[in-house]
Structures are given as C-alpha cells and as structure tokens.
Amino acid sequence: MANKSEQRQLLELEADLMRLKITAQHLKMKKANEQHSSLDTILGLTDIIPTHHLLRKSLLLPLGWKNRLLAGAAYLLWKMKK
C-alpha cells in the first residue's frame, strides 16, 4: 500500500492532467471559434457582391452543361438558406 505522500503526489498529478485536458479543450474551442468567425466574415463579404451580375458572367463562361447546372443548383441552395 502506498503511503500518504505517494497518494498525495498521485492526486496532484491527476489534477495536473485534468487541468491540461481542460486547457487543451479550451484551446481547441478557441481555434474552432476563430476559424468559424473568419468563415462567417468571408461569407458575410459575399453578400456584398452583386450576385446576379456574377451569376450571369459565370454562366457565360465556357463551361460544360453539367457544371452550369451544378453552379446554378449551388446558387439556388445558397439563396434558399439565407
């Protein structure tokens, strides 16, 4: 059986481990929030762009009909989610 000082040291190590796990989780959440906020900023800037003009220009590009359909479907889905 371990003596009291060894038990205390073990408990201190376990507490340090839990503190490190909590800190790591906070850092992960902070990084995810920063990435999410920068993505929101970029998507917010896309609202400024005149989409109809951009859509017409992109449809006039030399794309295959499948790519035009996909671009149109993506645009419609994007507009529906707003």
Note down, in words, how this protein is organized.
Residues 3-30 form a coiled coil. Keywords: Coiled coil. By secondary structure, the protein is mostly helical. It folds into 2 domains: 1-48; 49-82, no CATH class. The chain contains 3 helices and no strands. It has helices at 4-46, 51-60, 65-81. It is rod-shaped. The termini are far apart. The relative contact order is 0.05. The model has no long low-confidence stretch (mean pLDDT 77).
What's the short version?
With 82 residues, this protein is mainly alpha-helical. It is 85% helix and 0% strand. It folds into two domains: 1-48; 49-82, no CATH class.
Based on the model shown, name its key terms.
mainly alpha; 85% helix; coiled coil
